[in-house]
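**User:** My hope is that you can spare some time for a protein that puzzles me. As I understand it, each token names a local backbone shape. I would be glad if you read both lines and explained how they fit together. The protein I mean follows directly.
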Amino acid sequence: MLSPFSSFANAILMFQVPNGMVSINSVGNTVVETLPQTFTAMLSPVRDTAEINYYLGDDDISELLRGYLVNPLSFPTGLTAPIEGGAVVQVAIGVPKTGSFKLLPKVQSPYLVGLGISFLTSIYGVFRRG
């Protein structure tokens, strides 16, 4: 199934997703192994000043974004917020900016979950240009 936001995709997010395997490092600690995974999303800036101040404060290089996943349509079960990864976001037509994206916890709509609508996975996070 295609996302209804496919034509509006403006961000590529890259996260290290746990693959279910564990290993022991050189000091004897158990380490969860991860694989890089790429996600395409449609993101737009949050305009609520109170929300921006709460999450960012007076940070000139960060932007609070929200939107929806485009491809794949949902996150894998091993990827849980908060998590930080790389990102390339089109801030204007033909103007990509590279940086990091911190995915923040966001509750999905109980109506969408109840109806089994899986193609509207909302995203909420902080994009920091770098």
Q: What stands out?
A: The chain has two helices and six strands. The chain has a mean pLDDT of 84. The first strand starts at residue 11 and ends at 24. The beta strands are 11-24, 30-45, 62-71, 83-92, 95-103, 122-129.
